[in-house]
Amino acid sequence: MQISVRAPAAGAATAVPILSLDGITKTFPGVKALSDVALALYPGEVTALVGENGAGKSTIVKILTGIYQPDAGAITLAGKPVQFPTAQHATDAGITAIHQETVLFDDLSVAENIFIGHAPRTRWGLIDWPALRARATEILGRIDADLDPRMPLRELGIASKHLVAIARALSVDARVVIMDEPTAALSHKEIEELYQLVERLKAEGRAILFISHKFDEIFRIADRYTVFRDGQHVGSGRMSEIDEGELVRLMVGRSVDQIFPARAHQIGAECLKVVGYAHPTEFDDISFSLRKGEILGFYGLVGAGRSEVMQALFGVTRPSKGVVRIDGQIRAIRSPAEAIRAGIVYVPEDRGKQGAVIGLPIFQNITLPSLSQTSRRGFLRLAEEFRLAREYTERLDLRAAALDQDVGQLSGGNQQKVVIAKWLATRPRVIILDEPTKGVDIGSKAAVHAFMAELAAQGLSVIMVSSEIPEILGMSDRVIVMREGLIAAELEGAALTPESLVRHAAGIGGTA
Amino acid sequence: MTQYLKSREAILLGAILALLAMIATRFPAFVSPGNLLNVFNDTAPLIILALGQTVVILTRCIDLSVAANLALTGMVVAMLNAAAPGVPIAVILVLAVSLGAILGAINGVLVWKLSIPPIVVTLGTMTVFRGLIFVISGGEWVNAHEMSAAFTGFPRSVVLGLPMLSWIALGIAALFLLLVFRTPLGRAFYAVGGNPHAAVYTGIVVGRTQFWAFVLSGALAGLTGYLWVARYAVAYVDIAAGFELEVVAACVIGGISIAGGAGTLVGTILGALFLGIVKNALPVVDISPFWQLAISGSAIIVAVTFNVRQNRRRGRIILKRAEGHA
Predict the structure, then answer these.
(1) How many domains does one find in chain A?
(2) Which of A268, A303, A428, B310 is the most interior residue, by most CB within 10 Å?
(3) How far apart are alpha carbons A371 and B127 in whole angstroms?
(4) What are the strands of the beta sheet with A232-238, ordered from one edge?
């Protein structure tokens, strides 16, 4: 194992990290999530952790908070080696995390949320309510949060919930505060208030790990940066010594280690056209077209509104405005059933939740959207169902003992094949694949990519929503970048580069 | 089909046979074919209601109003018969099924369109239906002498050696097997209960599927309402009080998962038969009827333990995958 100088080089001579991780490796079956990474957090400083989706940011947060155990490597807290076998150990050591979606209790009061698990007790071991409220008021005062400790959390907005989470961090006297995309759901004013709070936490000497995709906020509040790429540490240093361009290059610059199928480009006539799609809260002014045999990529940060557009297109939600034309004909899509009839199918991102019906056998899962095809005079024909299921499972090379086996007994990759077979069996014109390789090991990824290329070659039009830059670059004929519910750019040919994708998605340089 | 022979139903069938063998050692006459047919006939109303309840539970709902629906429909047809004895039985049957279906549709609409939790909806309608019986009857009973001979005789009339009541239970069972295994609606019941999110994405309207389950359950409750009132030749406010819990128990013992999407009709029928045998056997083998409650209760707990174990096996697979993409 190589030992390299991984501690932030510049300025490290004077500052001593309160928490440092060295040589951390974490492997999951089939995936190396982290490989010999280092991270150091300094008291009174904000360290930004930067990286694409899948770079290993959330894995390291889970290691820091005791949810995962590293396979190798050392964690040092205030000069002493430590281990966090459980989340409680991490909390006791003064490490606290504020998540993107707060993990608080909606039906408990602000004060109860702040002190849950360590409420002040009376002599008799009962909760000391007056002390609890008094201390909650005191802590909320310290962060200038104008909240009533007795108010149920349900009545608060996300920004106020973050304040409660921060108050909770202070109540346990956290030395290290991890903020995982804390601004993702906040308005501009609330973000300003959060910045001030971060300044206050810095002034109190706490070390902050700040995870964000937004470059403007990283440059605004971080003192140091650490960049991960594909589970590896690729650089760290002081923010004052790096610019946006260099940071983007560190994030995306990669050796090509994934091979994408070569595709014969035979793109036909326009088959789908969306004009002026809008939703009151999720997206606005979405217009694009899709041609026969084309793979259209949709790139953006998590929460940019890509899946929401696709759900509207599939009739799960209703857009407030906009027109969909299929082969020039205006089609009103008000329900998934109508979308399927119009030839659009959607393979959702969360396949566990939205894909296979665990409990139904494989063949019944596959024929679920095609029952009108397989039934006659209102009665299902099982032989016909088996025929259809066999046809598509063979095409997808599904490994299953029998077609009447419960899908729950299949592996994740094979369950996904069942879901895809289900949609292909409806003979669609347009297939929307939402994060098609998320949670899939590298071997199956290549199979999914090859299959996607084959579908396009057969004249099917594919919309691929993906947050993985290599996949977007390797598979798409054209890419639409979304940011904050709007189309930020449409990229094609030479304009389609990793840097341009990141810039448009994050809103850097003239696109804001 | 292998799913009919899955261990769950086989175990239950084994339990029923073991129960019968135990009873036979103390009271051999109980297992004579003639008596077993009597037990089946006595269990027929439970079987019919449990079949309706099964499709409701498959869609992740519950129908607590079945017994009240039965009592209300039973009272309506009994009063009709008392007032107009000449109305033919066929009309009475159609009326009972339709009225029951309408009452079920009220549950269905509340669940579908207002998204009220089914347990709350049917708890409410259960009380409303009982109240309505009092309103229409003024708390009076309709007694045997007020009913026509044709009205009370129909469920007992013997056709090919079996009473009509038994034939109706068999007919409903056959219809439901066809419905659940061979129609898109039957498939939708499982899909909606097994994974409502996925069902939406395959074009199934979850609420509408649940609505039809309630309509079916209500229709069967209405039908049973007539059969019940005619068989016992009496109608009053409190008939079949608390029977809805026995119906749910039959489903649970039969392996219908309260979480929806899992279980078979064959299981339900066996679950109902199990309860029917316990109920009929205990008095003859001279065990206090209070033991019946204890035995039924234990059977429910054993059955649920089986369900939990099945779910746990499922959970493990999902976790493995979750770990894979973390």
Answers:
(1) 3
(2) A428
(3) 39
(4) A95-98, A176-180, A207-211, A46-50, A224-229, A232-238
Size of interface A-B (CB pairs under 8 A): 118
- Contacts with A29 from chain B: Cβ below 8 Å: 320, 323-324
Q: Which pTM does this prediction carry?
A: 0.74
Do residues A27 and A97 both lie within one domain? yes
Are A123 and A162 within one domain?
yes
Contact (Cβ atoms closer than 8 angstroms) between residue A105 and residue A119: no
Which of B256, B311, B325 should one mutate to test binding to chain A, selecting the residue with the greatest count of A CBs within 10 A?
A: B325
How far is the first Cα of chain B from the last one, in angstroms, to the nearest whole number?
Answer: 38
Could you give the CA distance from residue A351 to residue A412 in angstroms, rounded to a whole number? 9
- Nearest CA distance, A467 vs chain B (angstrom): 14
Complex ipTM: 0.74
- B interface test, pick of A68, A360, A433 with most B CB neighbours within 10 Å: A360
Q: Is the dihedral of CA B45, B47, B49, B52 positive or negative?
A: negative
pLDDT, one tens digit per residue, over B187-208 is 999 999 988 888 888 888 999 9
A264 and A241 in one domain? Answer: no
Give the separation between CA A279 and CA A484, rounded to whole angstroms.
13
> CB within 8 A of B112, min separation 6: which ones?
B207, B208, B210, B211
- Cβ–Cβ gap A31/B324 under 8 Å: yes
| pLDDT tier at A12, thresholds 50, 70, 90 | very low
Q: Nearest by CB to B194, from A33, A354, A357: name it.
A: A357
Count the Cβ atoms, other than its own, within 10 Å of residue A512: 9
Least confident of A9-13, A96-100, A257-261, B27-31: A9-13
Chain B CB contacts of A346 below 8 Å: 201
A217 and A316 fall within a common domain: no
pLDDT at position A350: 67
Q: Which domain holds residue A51?
A: 19-252
CA torsion sign for B96, B100, B101, B103 is positive
Going along chain B from its start, the domains and CATH numbers come out as 2-257+264-324 (1.10.3470)
